[in-house]
Amino acid sequence: MLSTAAQHNAAQSDLAFQRCINPNCAATYETMSIRTSCDRCGDLLDIAYDWDRAAVPGQLSDFEAMWSQRNNPVRFSGVWRFHELLPFAPQSKIVTVGEGQTLLQQADEVAKYVGLNPGQLHLQYEGMNPSGSFKDNGMCAAVTHAGMMEAQRAACASTGNTSASLALYCSATRAMKAVIFIGSGKISYGKLSQALDYGALTVQIAGDFDDAMIRVKEIAKKLGIYLVNSVNPFRLEGQKTIMFRVLEALRWEVPDWIVVPGGNLGNSSAFGKAFSELYQHGLIDRIPRLAVINARGANTLHELVQKHGVKWNGGNVSMEPITQYNESMDRDGKRADTIASAIEINRPVNLNKCLRALEVMDGVVREVDDQQILDAKSQVGAGGFGCEPASAASVAGAKLLRSEGVIAPSDRVVCILTGHELKDPTATVAYHSSDRELFEKTLGSRGVTEANYANRAVPVANELSAIIDAIEQHS
Ligand SMILES: *Cc1c(COP(=O)(O)O)cnc(C)c1O
Ligand SMILES: [Zn+2]
């Protein structure tokens, strides 16, 4: 039974409903229910809308008018500014901490590294979000829905950024208590420190992310805790707006490529949904191509799509190669292992949605190793604001696709930098350090042999002339 307040919310949110992504099932459920999969077939859920009754603007540039309403928190938010394209919540229920004030930067130095013509590479800095990663785009949407459902507690399993984001929203809005599940020893201090500092109940499981994910689902069900992992379809609605802001920054011109790191595959899924809806509304006249980049040490999507030919196939995904692949991982005791901890995931929960996005966006999947990731990361850092290792997989992937000729030098490419540089300073310092022991310990075990673009600190005696010499010599 819904309370009176919840019934009121239900009346306002009747534009939206939840729908099974499998077109052969397409079961629907009301917005005012908490679920992470289809009751009937077990597949993932989308948020769908009765668009005929929604107030979708006639053209994308109509959203520019929203900027003049910046003193309204809902319009200040880089997510809720696009409320008309994710209308599942009444305005009064919207949770925001001012997320989505992110930047698209033309990066010519990085373009040179990737092999693109000047002016053709753009970096979308999602690390500029309040908790330092793109996760805030989705978390404000999930916490909004949790609030509509009057949830008292919200939980997630996390490689770090989801938990940092959930912890921030719960502490900043005082709406509910955050319960986060992390694996042991994997999470970077930048991310762990956020969860602890923001006061989240932090449960450290003896296992890795994939283990924590299985547990959190069990616990959420058993204790009735609201689950905000990216199996939560509301989160992905918020993440659609990353693409809206990219288009906005490009003066509503559609780029040729969107390149994004792939972990649990929520982002890539959300991007596919964003573009397919924009196209359906007639707000864009073509859809960019998508490249999802795995780390080689966590390359399930790459294996399945590029090696086993797994496809969305209009919703008829052949499950056999997927089951076989999962079984072989179990048999071999295969564990995800990459310096890019945010994408260190072997069982991506949004696999089927990502397959759909790959179909909608004529996408490709590639894998890059940790050496390629860290070299690319150093280029991003040298060219501007920097990013965490997982984010740089996008730039390394763009470089790879350029070298294969899949991306042309004249293509307009947007790489999504998913997390802030300061999330994982250990990896950065180890890369640039001349301390070989630190390098070996942090990176050597991951197959990284050289810091090809290291910017080493210059050791110098505490003596004026020696310091002057050192500066003259190195500049
Ligand atoms: C979560 C995360 C990813 C992976 O995104 P998915 O949506 O899970 O594929 C990549 N980079 C960073 C920094 C992240 O926090
Ligand atoms: Zn179903």
General description of the model:
Helix content is 40%, strand content 13%. It is α/β, with parallel strands linked by helices and 475 residues long. It has a domain at 103-131 and 235-427: Rossmann fold (3-Layer(aba) Sandwich), CATH 3.40.50.1100. The strands form three sheets. It has a six-stranded mixed beta sheet, with helices on both faces. Helix 3 (108-114) runs antiparallel to helix 13 (370-383) and helix 13 packs across helix 14. The termini are far apart. The model has no long low-confidence stretch (mean pLDDT 93). The structure holds pyridoxal-5'-phosphate (PLP) and zinc ion. Zinc ion binds at residues 20, 22, 25, 27, 38, 40-41, 43. Zinc ion is lined by residues 20, 22, 25, 27, 38, 40-41, 43.
